[in-house]
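Sequence in, structure out.
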Amino acid sequence: GFRKESIDEFDYVKDLCLTSNVIFEGINLNIPLYKIENNLSSDESVSRDLRYTFYRDLCLKYNTNYVILGHHGDDLVEGVYMRLTHGAYGRGLISMTPVSKSNYGFTVLRPLLNLSKSEIYDFSRSLNLLWYEDISNLDDKYTRNRYRNNIIPLLKLENPNLNKVILNYSKFKSEEEIYFD
């Protein structure tokens, strides 16, 4: 709800679900009010907490323990490089995995981690699907966006297969941590 476009995006997804005979569950959040009531400052962490709370409530409603998220390979690459740059090591270098336990009592599945954002766009275009871009992704005031818009494109010039390299690294790192545990 930070952007006026989010209303149109919400309505589009709701209509797409209804016309496709897919159950729709949605919520409109008042992040500024929640931040004031809970004395919080970070838009990102507050938004994540409220989303995951919503997912947890849906898991309870539908008696499931799984939530599927749309993170893709580009998200993974950004996360690994952000963590590495900020001095993480060991388990801290694991940005995200295809399957993980959340702190909210459900298991997160990320089936798109082996795909790049451009591959997902190409597939969407082949089906004539509409998608929305969050214009705040262009704003370099957010750390992730600086990586997304400036650093990662330079690295991909050096190695166009960067997503696959980092995905393999991430899998290896996860397996290594499990082994040592």
